[in-house]
Amino acid sequence: MSIAKNTAKAAGLVMVITFISKVTGFLREVVLGSKFGTTKDVDAYNMAQNIPMVLFAAIAASIGTTVIPLFSEYLTKKGKDKAFEFINNLLNVIILMTVLFTVIAAIASPIIVKIMAPGFKGDVYYETLKLTIILLPVMIFVAVSNIITGALQSLQHFAVPAMIGIPYNIIIIGTALMYGAKYGIYGVAIATVIGSIVQILIQLPVLLKFGFKYRFVLNLKDESVRKVIILAIPVLIGTSIQVINTYVDRMIASYLPAGSIAALNYANRLIGFDIFSMAIAIVIYPMLSRYFASNNIDEFIKGIKMAVKAILYIMIPVTVGAIIFRVPIIRILFERGAFDERSTYLTSIAFMFYSLGMTANGLRNVLSRGFYSLKDTRTPMINGAIAVLINIGLNLAIVRYLALGGLALSTSVAATATSLMLMYSLRKKIGRIGGYEIASAFVKALIGSAIMGTFAYFTFNMITKYLPDGKIYDVLSLVMTIFIGSFIYFVFILLTDNSLVSYVKKGASIIKGKLAKE
């Protein structure tokens, strides 16, 4: 099977599962909100949940990210047995580290809570302290889950790792609905721990089917474990830089009119629903790692080029659609209760300027993983640090003119700068990466999106004239418009890009063959 067909099939599956996972995550927040509202219990739970995340989850995620290129190298050069031996040793080392870290954090939890939540006093402080001790073991299970996920993705299995958020959310939702009144927020905390254990349990059987057998191998001096830690450090620093970046944005927003921080959060939540580029990044990463491990640079370049073109062709029209229909989208999703017209207006401003960086964010995700595949975690870190400086500088320069929009625009410009720097750095590292083809795809996507956007804008206005007022009719108008606009854009791209025509013909022939067999 070709790279394109392989990637498209896997990415499509990951997209569907990720969408379901995000929906269940949204429902989890709705249920927790309906059961506990905005009480001190929820504040205590959120803070207690953040403490292990701040302390170790970023480290666990960094280690999980760096597992893929090293595991792929073992698979390619030394075989599956040696690769699983590496996973066994890494699991045991990380379990030992996280258990020790959990014990130390539990002992020091009174001090940690005071540092992390200095404003918490009295009952809310003691409640946060108890919840923190309950939730600290989550870091052990998150670390183990990330390592297993990395191994499965390296073995080209994406479905189960993509769905682990679904049972996690369902367990918390079920507990809140059935036992919320009886056990309160402590029941939700215990469900969170159980959910993180289940994330391991649903992945482990799949890894066992691939031939993995757990063995207690503990070699702290192993070269491969040392490489994982060395590669993980720049990823961790890059993650920390982004956290600082977000904090600076929120700090500046605190000087803006009331509701600005909330508007940024709501707009960010919508931007975070980019399941397409996330799916492409997840699927392409182990493929690129395998190509580099086998010294197949031509296929590596093809993979990067294909992923970049795919993101351009999908995310540019999504960006145009998000900007044009930002108000009806936000009104349909959020405008109810205390979320009034002013809230919609503020959120739409943030969403519009954040949308300008959607394509760049997708490209950054793919290009960063291209470097990780090359076992270069330093370059994305350096470029990320430069982008943060750009973002902060722009924040200070334009927030006085655009207020809330200036913060969101600065973030989008910084993301664009990052993706361009990564593209340039990758070209310097491995040579030509098909710049002409990528530029051509960008221009075609831009022209096609402009045509689509024009038709969609007038179509939406025409449809809404003939339909009554009401959210159900707003949804109907938006869905019809999206369908028509997508069809126009798809036809335009098919007419201008021969490579897509060939992919569609292949897909049609496969479907025709399957129907003929039936």
Automatic annotation (TrEMBL):
InterPro entries: Lipid_II_flippase_MurJ/MviN, MurJ. It holds the Pfam family MurJ. The chain crosses the membrane at residues 12-31, 51-71, 91-113, 133-152, 159-179, 185-208, 228-248, 268-289, 310-333, 345-363, 384-403, 409-426, 438-460, 472-495. GO terms for cellular component: plasma membrane. One of its GO terms (biological process) is cell wall organization. Belongs to the MurJ/MviN family. This is Probable lipid II flippase MurJ. It comes from Thermoanaerobacterium thermosaccharolyticum (strain ATCC 7956 / DSM 571 / NCIMB 9385 / NCA 3814 / NCTC 13789 / WDCM 00135 / 2032). The gene is murJ.
